[in-house]
Amino acid sequence: MNGYGNTTHSRKHPRSRGRMWSRSGPDSATLGIIGLVCAVAGFFVLGIILGPVAVVCGWLAMGRRWATGHVPSVVAVVLGAIDTLLAIIWLAGAASMGNGLL
Predict the structure, then answer these.
(1) How far apart are CA 98 and CA 96, in angstroms?
(2) What does the DSSP 8-state code read for residue 101?
(3) Within 10 A of 76 (CB to CB), how many other CB atoms are there?
(4) What percent of the chain has pLDDT over 90?
(5) Model pTM greater than 0.85?
(6) Among the residues of 14-70, which ranges form H helices?
(7) What DSSP character marks residue 25?
(8) What is the pLDDT of residues 43-91, one digit of tens each?
(9) Which residues contact 61 (CB under 8 A, 6 or more apart)?
(10) Quick one: which H or E segment has residue 18?
């Protein structure tokens, strides 16, 4: 009964083999560079938006784990976090002063 039925032992190519590297998106180097650019630009304009974008891009570039081998990704995560914190502090300071609204 060697040739009858669907047995997984006789498959030469498992189903998951074709799906392992068929990723249709930016690779990790591109995401790391995008995150780094967003983090640096966030220090000058729209830090509250570009900071979290930099953190997310850097995190995805590292493969959703803390891997220090991807230098632009690590820098993007760290600078994006600093950028976001500075933007939140600036917004809280601007809101507490009132800016002449009262």
Answers:
(1) 5
(2) -
(3) 31
(4) 40
(5) no
(6) 28-42, 47-61
(7) S
(8) 999 889 999 999 999 999 888 777 777 788 999 999 999 999 999 998 8
(9) 28, 29, 30, 31, 32, 35, 70, 72, 73, 76
(10) none
